[in-house]
């Protein structure tokens, strides 16, 4: 390997594949992409049922009553919304994928599952609020829908870059804690309540994005999901990188990052060293440059019915805000089925995930699992989350963070965009016209 690359990317997880595609297609980098595995996707792959059973049960013969094993594509991670959609369109990766809208978006509140209201009309119909609260919520949603950065009249005399979200929601519109809870966690998709003390502009834009996505996809949720599972996403970005000259090498064992004077100079595998200026990788490739920051608990459930109280939705997300569970972390349910080509007809795959707060994930996940009704099979799993500790400006190593418990991929894309900025010194412009590009991914 005498060639020198602008960047070597290690691992074919979604984050690494997006970065590989962006660096190749947008920045014209010469990229070599390597993985110790013989398949794309890393920890964000989709598994056939036999692969799932072998990984977690030690047997590649799942129960016959689950149906044809090859009709399953079981994701290790989940769903797309907002910023990821913009990245897909910005890079034209949509030409390699087919998407279908997720049927429903729900929130767990006071012991029940409710549809998430995202507009002034839905606010008036929602059983989440009493009569007077509905009217206050309606005024808030109208403000969000009408808000425009470039139209001072829509700001109602406020500078949202200075007004905290807490003041806007509770003082300006008088919304109660219950309403704030579901708006902040199931529309703005925040994982904790620290946003309440941050400038309200970020909160408003996240709620606005939710409502715009909901209207655009013309379904019951603001989410889209690729046919055959999220394992298709890394492969699509790999194709993009290859089109722009990226080189892929799978099944490369013992990829060792080489350094001189503290800076990366290449990667060695099978006795050969490929030279490079930068390395992009997941935490497993540079374990001495990361630290453990938490643990995710998840349950993978196979069922013969949709999640109860979701209007018989073939696919749905349910967010369980932390306050509703007396926890520090939100819990997420996601269910998908045969219309997305991830299971045989009549079978549903549900995921329950949360940030682990104890050493007993089965007990922690019980509030979410209890909402599923009867379960045919269940697999419990935990994995550690890592964050980089290195200074990428000094060693030219750009390490992604581990995937968190969220099912909507917002934090995943924010990590990708931050890494892109660190690698290139540029901010990726995602101000694309979503409506103009809608035909390519709403197939």
Explain what the structure shows.
With 443 residues, the chain is α/β, with parallel strands linked by helices. It folds into three domains: 4-46 and 230-290 and 388-428, FAD/NAD(P)-binding domain, CATH 3.50.50.60; 52-103 and 292-385, Guanine Nucleotide Dissociation Inhibitor, domain 2 (2-Layer Sandwich), CATH 3.30.519.10; 117-217, Orthogonal Bundle (Guanine Nucleotide Dissociation Inhibitor, domain 1), CATH 1.10.405.10. The protein is built from 15 helices and 20 strands. The chain has helices spanning 14-25, 49-57, 83-90, 120-125, 131-146, 165-172, 177-187, 200-217, 232-243, 322-325, 361-364, 366-369, 392-395, 410-424, 438-441; strands spanning 4-5, 7-10, 31-34, 46-47, 74-75, 99-101, 104-109, 112-115, 224-226, 247-249, 256-260, 263-269, 272-276, 279-281, 290-303, 316-320, 331-337, 348-355, 377-388, 397-399. The strands form five sheets. A seven-stranded mixed sheet has the order 8-7-16-17-18-15-19. Strands 10-3-2-14-20 form a five-stranded parallel sheet. The longest helix is centred in the middle third of the chain and has 18 residues, at 200-217. The radius of gyration is 22 Å and the shape is globular. The chain starts with a strand and ends with a helix. Residues 433-443 have low confidence and may be disordered.
């Amino acid at each position: 390997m005498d060639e020198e690359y602008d960047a070597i990317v290690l691992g074919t997880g979604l984050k690494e594949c997006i970065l590989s595609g962006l660096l190749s297609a947008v920045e014209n980098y010469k990229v070599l992409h390597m993985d110790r595995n013989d398949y794309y996707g890393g920890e964000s792959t989709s598994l056939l049922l036999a692969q799932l059973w072998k990984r977690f049960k030690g047997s590649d013969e799942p129960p016959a009553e689950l149906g044809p094993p090859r009709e399953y594509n079981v994701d290790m991670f989940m769903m797309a919304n907002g910023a990821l959609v913009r990245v897909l369109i910005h890079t034209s990766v949509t030409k390699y994928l087919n998407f279908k809208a997720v049927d429903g978006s729900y929130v767990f509140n006071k012991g029940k599952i409710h549809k998430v209201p995202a507009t002034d009309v839905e606010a008036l119909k929602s059983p989440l609020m009493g009569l007077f609260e509905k009217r206050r919520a309606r005024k808030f949603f109208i403000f969000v829908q009408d808000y425009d950065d470039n139209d001072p009249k829509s700001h109602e005399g406020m500078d949202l870059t200075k007004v905290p979200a807490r003041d806007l929601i509770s003082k300006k519109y008088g919304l109660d804690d219950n309403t704030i809870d579901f708006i902040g966690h199931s529309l703005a998709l925040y994982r904790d309540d620290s946003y309440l003390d941050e400038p309200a502009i970020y909160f408003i834009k996240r709620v606005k994005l939710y409502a715009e996505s909901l209207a655009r996809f013309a379904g019951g949720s603001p989410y889209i999901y690729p046919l055959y599972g999220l394992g298709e996403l890394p492969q699509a970005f790999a194709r993009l990188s290859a089109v722009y000259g990226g080189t892929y090498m799978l099944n490369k064992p013992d990829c060792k990052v080489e350094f001189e004077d503290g800076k990366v100079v290449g990667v060695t595998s099978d006795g050969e060293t490929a030279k490079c200026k930068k390395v992009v990788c997941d935490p497993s490739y540079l374990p001495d440059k990361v630290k453990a920051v938490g643990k995710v608990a998840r349950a993978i459930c196979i069922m013969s019915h949709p999640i109860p109280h979701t209007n018989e939705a073939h696919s749905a997300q349910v967010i369980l805000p932390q306050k509703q569970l007396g926890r520090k972390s939100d819990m997420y349910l996601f269910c998908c089925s045969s219309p997305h080509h991830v299971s045989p007809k009549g079978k549903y795959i549900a995921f329950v995930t949360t940030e682990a707060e104890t050493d007993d994930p089965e007990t922690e996940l019980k509030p979410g699992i209890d909402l599923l009704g009867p379960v045919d099979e269940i697999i419990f799993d935990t994995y550690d989350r890592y964050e980089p500790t290195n200074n990428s400006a000094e060693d030219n190593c750009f390490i992604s963070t581990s995937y968190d418990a969220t099912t909507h991929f917002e934090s995943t894309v924010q990590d990708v965009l931050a890494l892109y900025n660190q690698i290139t010194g540029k901010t990726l412009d995602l101000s694309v016209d979503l409506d103009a590009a809608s035909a390519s991914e709403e197939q």
